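Re: the request from the purification team.
They wanted to know what the chain is likely to look like in 3D before they choose a buffer screen. I agreed to run a prediction and write the result into the notebook, where they can find it.
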Amino acid sequence: MNGSRLYAKPLHYLDIEGGVTILDNIINCLEGIDAIDEIVLAISEAPENIAFKLFAEKRNLRFVTGDEHDVLGRLVKAGQYAGATDIFRVTSESPFVQFEQVDELWQHHLANNNEGTFFDDTLDGCSFEIINLAALAQSHQDGDDRHRSELCTLYLRENIDRFKIDIIKAQPEFQRKDLRLTVDYPEDLVVCRACFEKFSDHQPRIPINKIIDYLDQNPSLKSLIEPYVEEGYSTMFIR
């Protein structure tokens, strides 16, 4: 909740009149994906995050709470609470999931008995990870504080020889490090709102290739996020 750059990022509106927040759009998208059985919020127990509990109750979602800094611990707790075998993980401030690849990569994950299947090298904010819950629990046990941070799969990525992991790269047209679709700064929010409005007929499952084309045709929007793309990609897709 207490983002230093933009307060309460997931609860900002993509559609002010329609009352659709970033988190609403993520959930609306995930609810239409066959591979996902349940959505659980893993909420920091810091007092200001009560807004997320109220959100979960409004959306009829289950949730867990845990240490503010031990994000991995919260993720494991959420999986255990739901009785999950594997977790499909996205973050709460990235409104546009690259949904087209999810069911296919879930089948790949199962067929290869993977402990982790990571969809990497796509736009900042559109990637996702599928992780076996037991592997996450082992990461929490064997890792240190930096592995228990918001970099929830860092331990797996740094010890890839110890786990059965596939890293799937996005197709070249999605490997656009001049673009980002995550909300960390006010300028990000302006861009994501513009994309949401432009493709209102596709909500909540807006194809990422359509957003890319739209941004390429609108350099004024691209210029808003240009100062932040290098920073964002510098800590992504560690391997």
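For the purification team: The beta strands are 13-15, 20-21, 40-44, 62-66, 86-89, 116-120, 128-132, 165-169.
Please add any questions underneath this entry.
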